[in-house]
Amino acid sequence: MNIYHISAECYPIAKVGGLGDVVGALPKYQNELGQTSSVIMPFYNNKFTQSHSFKKVFSGRFNLGRPFGFDILTLEDNTLGYDLYLVHIPELLYTEYVYSSNDTNRFLGFQIATLDWLVQLEKKPDIVHCHDHHTGLIPFMMSQSYAYHKLKTTPTVVTIHNGQYQGWFSHNKIHLIPPFDFSKAGLLDWKHLINPLASAIKCAWKVTTVSPNYMEELKYAANGLEDLLRYETGKCVGILNGIDDKVWDPATDDNLIQNYSVKTAASGKKANKEWLCKEFNLNPTLPLFAFIGRLVGEKGADLLPEIFHNSLVHKNMAVIMLGSGDSSVEHQLDQLKYRHPGYYNNYIGYNERLAHIVYAAADFLVMPSRVEPCGLNQMYALRYGTVPIVNKVGGLKDTVQDFDDNGFGILHDGATVHEGSFAIHRAIDFYHDTDRFKKNRNLIMKIDHSWDSSAQAYINLYKSLIL
Q: Is-above-0.70 flag for pTM?
């Protein structure tokens, strides 16, 4: 099958969150399973594009209130494991950032240029796979816009990575969408706005989410799309994300201070922990708790200052925090350095190498998320022998089982300070049960969360649409 993934993000080209990780891995694994899977994304003027060479494979023009020229570029020295195509629209997309306040026009232009290229290809796609609302109008345009009638019978799949963001904009901009039968305008509308994600749910042949539990949650909490998802339930399916186990492998990860396998986990994790604790003035003999991620409400980040303070007063643990986001939360977390010197430290911002070291060094990873469509961090933690402490939501519920219920992690029921603090208390007791903790570490490092099974599940889904 000839598969095109269309996305605003793709690691290592441009990544803001888990969307980038997924789109950077899924096509590679699909290709390894015998498919022809490619990625189409915007051209951003960032470190990746500045340090690589590209060749032009197509040029065109489209109207978005006025004419815009664009080029389709492909990576010349391609070692990604899939073909990469960048939509270069200098007047709209020539930026270093992925998202902005002008995203309606930016991503609408991206989608139109993408379809202008795909429609003229001699070898048409077998599947067009759209990711999140930034590409949500593609299923509508393929099925309804006159310019793309040759793509009308091409199956489309949309994956919802985060249903809270839907790309809403006013009907005043409906004229920017390539001409279509206006009697079909209802396919664009949801609650009196053009809603790209809602349109994708209506028009795509199949709708997926990044975990089975998240699909069920969206039917009751989808920022206004609950009724639509329940109505379209027959074409909806949850497929759990995987992780790239070649990138995330403690035995070969060149970011680490010392590599390790299941057999050498004790010494390997100790070496990484000692280095990290020395760098951040923490005590390596204590159980080390970590948080890695965006400091936003969805991640339960506003709970962290109080959860950590409540636990640190006992001086029987250490905490390292890596992330950025809400300035108020950043300030509160920064203050903990002065309230608990030697027991708490943080890195405000993001550092890819440091993140890998933290996964390797930590004993526990804290994820008190209110919303977690799939979650990749808990899978990275398991791969590196680090026990996840998670709220029972979304993909966290699908991937973590509590150690007191014949599982291997720590679950709490609700994103609250009390639940989070009690989970840490349980974790400390678990840590000091040395034999059990060691056996658990060896167990979790063997859990397979690679993309192999998930990539095959998507392939099976595609085949059901074209047979």
A: yes
